[in-house]
Amino acid sequence: MFSVYLQIFQEPKKANRVEQVLLEYSRCIKHCGQARGTETGALLLSVVGGKMSEGINFSDDLGRCVVMVGMPYPNIMSPELQEKMAYLDQMLPRAPSQARPGKALVENLCMKAVNQSIGRAIRHQKDFASIVLLDQRYASPAIQAKLPAWIRDRVEVKATFGPAFAALRKFHREKAGLS
Questions:
Q1: pTM above 0.70, yes or no
Q2: Which of 4, 12, 7 is nearest to 26 (CA)?
Q3: Cross-strand partners of 69
């Protein structure tokens, strides 16, 4: 369905193709903004921590919606991470109502990746993008507390697709001056 209206791009398997994919994506966005055909934009699929995760910005029309599917937790089976978690659990005191320090580290690493991904699309004061956090765990106050304040203050939790889509549509119409 999306491919009728959007040209779909995906993060390449080979690092030497990243620049070419980004160039084609950028050209498509600019072309769709100028032409009035059936194709209205582009969709770029990538992986948190993948080849497109470092040093690439999607400001202005290059990134109008960021969708985070799931939560990008690090591999807790990594020996290095297990050592860090064990060290923190052993060395830092734990309040009865708080998570173990090692668990907090894992959650903080996850949310750092989320916040960095969001930040790739919103690069300056007049820039905008909708942010869709597709996982019920994002509704948790503890997780929301780890979002930047300027996002946290605007979070709207929608339980089903219909209201979420309506909110996205309203947001983008307002930004385009079409309300």
A1: yes
A2: 7
A3: 134
